[in-house]
Structures are given as structure tokens and as C-alpha cells.
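Work Package 3 (structural annotation) set out to generate three-dimensional models for the target panel prioritized at the project kickoff. During this period the team completed the workflow that converts sequence records into C-alpha cells, so that structures can be stored uniformly alongside our sequence database. As a representative example, we reproduce one entry of 446 residues exactly as it appears in the project archive.
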Amino acid sequence: MKTTFTRASIIRPAEPTWNGVMALSELDQVGAVSHVPAIYFYSPPPADTDFYRTVSSSLSEVLVYFYPLAGRLRRLDGGRLEIDCNANGAPVVEVEYDCDMEELGYLTPSPEFYDLLPKIDYSLPIEEIPILLVQVTKFRCGGVSLGVMTSHGVVDGQSAFHFRTEWARMGRGEPIEQPPFLDRRILRAGEPPLTQPRSDPLAYSTPPLIIGETTTEKEKKKETTFAILKISDAQVQTLKNRANENWTENKNYPRPYTRFEVIAAQIFRSSCRARRHVYNQPTGLTITVDVRNRMNPRLPRKFFGNAVVDVVVEAISGEVVENQLSFTAEKIRETIQGVTCDYVNSTIDYLKCLEDLSPLQAFPKNDGEEPFYGNPVMGVVSWIGLPLGGMDFGFGKEIYMAPDLGALDPDGNSRIIPAPDGGIEVAVCMHTECMADFKKFFYEDM
């Protein structure tokens, strides 16, 4: 497909904003610190409107409140990062794409979707890479897409969606509804550790290897493929009924297993079966947990930053496969329940005490060797409860939002996403040799 660049500009806050260095919390500085993509597809806007101009002008207005996104990251010793709030701005480009949205197949994410995202040159010093980048793509049919890249080193999913919601609101000519809470000192950003941590959080330990292998090289080299598996509300209820078949209320389990717990358990169980592990193969399910309501006191409702931690459900593959779904759902619940305020503070202290954070960062061109979290490990992120839709700049809501394209690449990555027409979509990346069996086992018990 041919793309033609038509316009480009650097969008800065519409009014002067605070200028200075903003400390990041340790939760900002580990895991993925590269950019996370999102793509919104729109029906053709009215002929007398300019989507690019509306997006650009409202971005300038909203950056007055979300001004860290107009700055640049700056690297410190030991792989640590901070934000230089210098109002250098966010680049916005417009391109024309020589095809129709239907021809692209916009409802089925593919590698071609990367053409709809702004390009990032990770060979540049991090101080020169924008935190936020935007691309407006005009299709031959008149439809439009909005591609947004946001640094995960600055915000998590909850904060990114909050920003986009307010951005669209200003595009409609409305005032901001919920300004962000920007002070990351509430998660002890820039402060020394409180105590020496009791132990290393499991999420930062070296993942297990396939039995008989001494490195991850063989698994890394295998071809991967991406799929979106749709499950109806009725199928979700079938899974919940299976998992809760023998459930009885008690003080430790006052409620039945949730849809997240049972879907995550089904993903984990299906991956162990599809990968055909030997019975005693150590495995794990990495889960990203939002800690906003787990702190004491709770974080402000619109805290802007990363307020998530990764936890690992440890298991033996054969036990996951041979036991009922409730066995894995219980392990998932127990692991998540362990994420308390004390756990989060201990994790922050552990990270503060590390001499170098870079081995724990996933960033293109990273000098260190990044850990491989694929086979025999699985990862799941839930978008249930996030404000995914409603990016209406005054021309109508999007007709589709593509899931995180980061799930296209690494083996074992998955997302649980509310479907726009009801039910759930599971976006998953697996080794190509395992995907057919994964689909079979995933749907088998529904």
C-alpha cells in the first residue's frame, strides 16, 4: 500500500506550563518503557471539517493539563529515568493511504496496521524521542484513523485512556471534566527506600526455561502468529459456571470466581496444553495488577502515571492441565489478593535498592539482554473496566479500536478486551506451531 505524507506539525501546550524535572516512580521505570500503540478508526467525517486540524488544536489545549506528555524522558545513572517537562511538544503527522478501510481489513489487526502509526527512531538519544506521537491517516474511502503512540515509561493504560478521553472531549468544544493528578511523590517518586525489602518480587526473577534447555534462544527464534478469539457472554457464563461448580462461600472466598479469573485461567490452561509441556514443566502466568485501590490511602482517582505491578502465578504445567478450571482460577485469585499496600511498597523498595534498573526494562536498542517471557510462561493484561471507546472529537465515535499491537510480537502475550458488540475478545500471540491447538483447547470447554 502506498502512503503519502501531507502535513506535519509539532503540537505544544496552548498556554505556558510548569517547566522543570519530574521524578518518576519505580513503577514507571520497569517493564515496557517504550511506546504503546492505539488505533481508532472513524467513518468519513463531514466534508466541511478538518479532522487533522481538530485533533491538533484540541491536543494543544489538553496538553495544558497533561503537560508531562509534551516533555521528554531523560536517562540517569543506573538506567533510571525522569521527565524533562520542557514543552517540546508532540509531533502530529497526516498521511494518505492508498486503499479503503475495508480493503485493509480494519477489524482484523495485521502487520499493515503499523503503517497507521507514527514512526519512532529509537536510535536517537531518549532525550530526543517524544513521549507522545500522533498520526492521522486518510483512506481512499474517506474514512480516517487516529494512531497514537504513548510512552509506557510515563503512563499506564488507565492513565493513557484518561488522557485520550479528555482530549476527545476538548475536540468537541467541551471543558476538561477530570484533570489529572500529576504528583508522583504519592508513589514515593524520587525518595529513598523506606526499608530493606524482605525478598525479591517474583515478577523480577528469571523466568523458567523449557526442561532440557539451557537458554531461551530456541524459543525466541520460533515464528509467532497473532489471533483475536471472540467469546460471547453466554460462553463466558459457561466458563464461570464450570469454575464455580463446587464453590461455596467462606471468609477467604466470599464471591464466585470473576470473568477475568476464569478467562485468564482458560488462557493459561490452554497454553499449557497447546505447548505440550512435560508434566513437571515449571510455568507461570504473569498478571498486571492495578494498585490504585490497593494502596492505603487509595491513590487519587485520576492519578496520572504507572500504578501497576506484575505478579506471577507459579505452577506446574501438568497440574494446570489435569486439574479443573477452578484449580487455576484459585491460584490466580490468591496471587492477586497478595497485592496489598505493603506488597507494593516492598516492591518499590526492592527497585529503589537496585543499582541498575535497565535489565528490567523492555526498550528498543536496550544495551542489555531483555528477559524472554514466552514459552513456558504466559502473560495476560486485562482491559476490562477501561474506558476503551468514545473517542468522539465531534464527528462521531470511532467504529473500531484496534487492540495493543504490541501483542503481535512476543510469544505468550495476551489481552482480555471487552468487545464493542458485547462479550470478550482475547488478543493472543503464540508460536505458530501452537496456535491451532491453542484455539481448539480455548474453545473446547465452552
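Residues 205 and 318 are 22 Å apart (CA to CA).
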